[in-house]
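Tryptophan synthase alpha chain: structure, please.
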Amino acid sequence: MSQVTQAQADRLAAAFAKTKGRAALIPYITAGDPSPQATVPLMHALVAAGADVIELGVPFSDPMADGPVVQRATQRAIEKGVGMRHVFDMVQAFRESDKTTPVVLMGYANPVERYGQLEFARKAQEVGVDGVLVVDYPPEEMLEFARYLDDVDVAPIFLLAPTSTDARIQKVAEIARGYVYYVSLKGVTGAATIDLSEVEQRVQAIRRHVSIPIGVGFGIRDAQSAQRVGQVCDAVIIGSKLIETMEEAVARANGHEADQAAVKAAGAWLAGIRQALG
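Here you go.
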């Protein structure tokens, strides 16, 4: 294994190891939002605020699993011309000064297919991506792509839902690496109230099959909900409220240094979440 891929193989494991009993914090942002030039500074600001892993959304015109907040962010990025090549460039630029924080690309199959699965895997490794989560690739359709990712030590990451059967969880367990992402609510991102007791039961059920960390997302909107969810899982994943926080900052800035305002607001808000996790 090359030095580069060895570093990638270690980054996700190291991120979870260093949390020392607390849940890891994984913010989600859309590449290119609030602007292409703000994305890398935003990633650094999130790390400074306490992010352990960053999920970077790949813009796609039909984000079926995303709610209106993430859809708006995606649309803004697309309108600015952000595509897969730009996402890779952003990760590469981030890696120039951050060699340790894992970056997971999250998106849909269509952009991967257009790029080419093998070419995508190789480019992801080249620029320093640590994991890939393709929302609409079920595990049985992911086997070849997962092998491509494994060959370059990029972790294939999967979603599990309240409706996932034991058979589906077992299939995911066989090929997933890095962590699995448990969707705590039925519906789309940004949905309503989370049921902690149900989340705890489902996480326990998933642990019977899965030995890697389990992150929980959807429905986490503040320090209190993050703290509660963090007590029953290995990572708290949060996106919609973070994006809303940036939207509000941009609106207040009214065009004047809007990017800086968004980055500052995002960092300050995430620092509060990080503090709540311990």
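Notes: The first helix runs from residue 3 to 17.
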